[in-house]
Amino acid sequence: MHVLAIDGGGIRGLIPALVLAEIERRTSRRIGELVDLIAGTSAGAIIACALAKPSPMEASRVAELFVEDGPRIFDRSLLKRVISIGGLLDERYDSDGLVETLERHLGSVRLGEASPAVLLTAYDLEHRRAVLLRSGSADLSMVEAVHASSAAPTYFEPVPVAGQTLVDGGVFAINPAMCAYADRAGSVDLLLSLGTGSQTRRLPYDDVRDWGQLEWARPIIDVVFDGITDAVDDQLGALMGTGYVRLQTPLDEASDDLDDVSDENLAALQREAERLIAARDAEIDRVCELLTRDRAER
């Protein structure tokens, strides 16, 4: 069984989308034809459903989605900036741009129509539990499921769905690879995990030693996300050996902000993806060979 897992990361989802476009180019096959399950968190959920809907999008088109629609998703009116006091008293963004984008690209497709199967992460604030939205069990539209998985605290308001109050699954699984592995335990031959760029912004001791709740409010989210991602990477490397492939790159040039949709940063994210593809060229070739060889043998 082949599994693809895609991290959350807001606009940085452009990086894994471009990596997937390269895999489609090298194999001349759609991603949905090469894997049996796609797991996604937040931006990864958007990519997962776009690739698995009945009329799947090419990965290159999904990458264009981030460039074209990112500025609409992360658009703050002057009124919103004033009311939220820069995000301190309310979420930073209205959900209208996100929902409109999802509706335009995913339409009325139900999660159960996904092929291959998808697994999206969310967290239920009402019942205080992690939630896995599976294509085989959740009677939700793709729009509802992706919206919930993308509702990052402080960025977007929570999403009420079927008696639950859901937020971004990144609060427990910014890297959903372990969730996917556990969901298909014992049957995963290849697990390809795609990151959205690792943080490089340092938090020196002299800066953080006197921080209180206000100063920690935003940075702690990035710290938790980083810690979860690294832990999952270490665990799956130990469990699966060469069957686990993690394609991740440090953000040496692009911003690590989830919502930096400036033209300069979008161009920098594309360059980060190009450097990742060049640096891991041989490993991407190996992944492509495994994906296509195993499919040919079936």
SSE layout:
Layout: E1 2-6, H1 14-27, H2 31-34, E2 37-40, H3 43-52, H4 59-73, H5 78-84, H6 96-106, E3 117-124, E4 129-134, H7 142-149, E5 159-161, E6 164-168, H8 170-173, H9 177-183, E7 190-194, H10 205-208, H11 213-216, H12 219-240, E8 244-247, H13 263-279, H14 281-297
Parallel strand pairs: 1-2, 1-7, 2-3, 7-8
Antiparallel strand pairs: 3-4, 3-6, 5-6
Helix pairs in contact: 1-4, 1-13, 3-7, 6-7
Please give a structural write-up.
The termini are close together. This protein has 14 helices and eight strands. A hairpin with a 2-residue loop joins strand 5 (159-161) and strand 6 (164-168). Strands 1, 2, 3, 4, 5, 6, 7 and 8 form an eight-stranded mixed β-sheet that branches. The radius of gyration is 18 Å and the shape is globular. Helix 1 runs antiparallel to helix 4 (59-73), helix 3 (43-52) runs antiparallel to helix 7 and helix 6 packs antiparallel against helix 7 (142-149). It has helices at 14-27, 31-34, 43-52, 59-73, 78-84, 96-106, 142-149, 170-173, 177-183, 205-208, 213-216, 219-240, 263-279, 281-297; strands at residues 2-6, 37-40, 117-124, 129-134, 159-161, 164-168, 190-194, 244-247. By secondary structure, it is α/β, with parallel strands linked by helices.
Q: Please tell me how large the radius of gyration is.
A: 18 Å
The number of helical segments is 14
Overall SS class? alpha/beta
* Rough outline: globular
